[in-house]
Amino acid sequence: RNINILLNMSRLLEKPSVCDISKSEDKWIISRLNSLVKKVTKELEALHPHTASRSLLDFWLNDLSRGYIQFVRDRLAQKDKQAEYVLSYCYIELLKMCAIFTPFIADHVWQNLREKGLVKEESVHLCDWPAVDAKKINKKLESEMQTALEVIEKGLAVMDQAQMGLKWPLAKAEIKCIEHL
Description:
Blueprint: H1 2-9, H2 24-45, H3 49-77, H4 81-98, H5 103-116, H6 139-161
Helix pairs in contact: 1-3, 2-3, 2-4, 2-6, 3-4, 4-5
């Protein structure tokens, strides 16, 4: 089921054109990706492939699929170039890291992306390992977006308990934040 989510995300990719990144959700996912590359690289170098693979899975399920894609779904439908570029960039970098854990699936997806003209290399296994861009890591933004995702998750849980459909807007929502010093 989790692999299917990874495979299905490739259907959302379009040929991206490089552009400036100005929206906070785009900066957040780029920051999360760079934090992921840093963590996976560190864990693999420490011979902890189980921790590295869990981090990859968490990223593609929670951050990319359930987080970022949900935030930019309308932008993708409107062919927003910035959202298309960020999604393609993150997905391709993720695929490079997944290749050591799921070599055949990653290369199958890569070949499909190659047919679409999204990648040039003959195989994902011929690509360089993604490099960390420490300047793009923003821990404060990552923390703030994590809080926002938790609020959304709790709101959806309340709606589910009340047996409300997701398309029905809430009449009122109260959010109480307690700042820890």
